[in-house]
Amino acid sequence: MNKKISKPIGFLWIITSVIWVVICLFLLVWGLKGVNDLERSINTQFDSVDENIVLTKSIITETIEVFDSVNSVLATVEQTAIDTSRSLSETSPLITESTQVITQDVPDALDDLQASMPSVIETAGLVDDALKLLSAFSFSIPIPLGDSLEVGLGVAYDPSEPLDDALQNLSASLEDVPDELRGMQNDLDNANENLLYVSEDISSLAKDLNTMNEEISDIKPQLEKIYLDVEVLKISIQKVRKVAPSIIMKIKVILIGLFVLVIFSQIPYLYFGLYIIKNR
To answer: Is residue 136 very low, low, confident or very high in pLDDT (cuts 50, 70, 90)?
Structure first.
């Protein structure tokens, strides 16, 4: 080979080999840096995932506890609603009976009393006169050598108001009472009807609360399953995290080995380049 041609070729081989070596070293350093950055990023992501898993488990646990409390409260409210509805339902017959007594029995009895009042008042007048007569009855027995002995029946009767007048006033005060009591019929019937409506509404509320409680109870097993799934995920991530360093190390070894192989592959070119330059 011509010496003028061989030397440039030798220099070209040497320069090309050196460039390849420099490029390989640069790529090796850059690749190792990238792998290290990847390792740090993976560790950061693992830390973030661990924190999120712990937070998720805590939230699920608190949610289950809240649902347990809500279930207990709803059960208590439901039972209270049932008891209230039952009490109102049992009160309705009592109101019906009271309505019968207040608006019918008592007014009828008062009407009968008012009807008998004239004769009662007349009798009371006779009794009053008789009592006054008996109260005023007395006589004296003369006693020798002393005062006379006053003898009476022992009846003291001097009322502020005569008995017949008192009964007359009582009759006058009771005159409008029967009609007033009968006038309460509609109000008591409406109250009884409203009471039944309230009882039905509360009973319906109790059923709705029972449905809601059952739905919440159905959610709890799902949350518990999610909790177990998260726990399994945590274990899987921990396993991956334990394996990750060895995988990263293998990547580094492969990367170093690959570039070292490329660098060593340039040694023959360097050698031939130097050989051509020195021997031609």
So the answer is: low
Q: How far is the first Cα of the chain from the last one, in angstroms, to the nearest whole number?
A: 8
Torsion sign across C-alpha atoms 66, 69, 70, 71: positive
Q: Supply the pTM of this predicted model.
A: 0.52
State mean pLDDT over 251-258.
85
- Full domain range(s) for residue 166: 3-279
Cα dihedral angle (105, 110, 111, 115), rounded to 10 degrees? 140
Residue 21 tokens read as: 């070596």
Which DSSP letter does residue 102 get? I
Cα(272)–Cα(280) distance, rounded to whole angstroms?
12
Structure letter (DSSP) for residue 56: H
Say what the pLDDT of residue 190 is: 80
Please list, residue by residue across 238-276, b when 16 or more beta carbons sit within 10 angstroms of its beta carbon and e when fewer do.
eeebeeeeeebeebbeebeeebeeebeebeebbeebeeb
Please tell me the total count of domains within the chain. 1
pLDDT (tens digit, 9 = 90+) per residue, 189-223? 787 777 777 778 878 877 887 888 787 788 878 88
Evaluate whether 220 touches 69 at the Cβ level (below 8 Å): no
Among residues 123, 151, 122, the alpha carbon closest in space to that of 139 is found at 151
Q: Which of 186, 172, 188 lies closest to 110 in space, CA to CA?
A: 172
Residues 154, 164 contacting (CB under 8 angstroms): no
Q: Rounded to an integer, what distance in angstroms lies between the CA atom of residue 22 and that of residue 43?
A: 31
What token pair was written down for 168? 């007359």
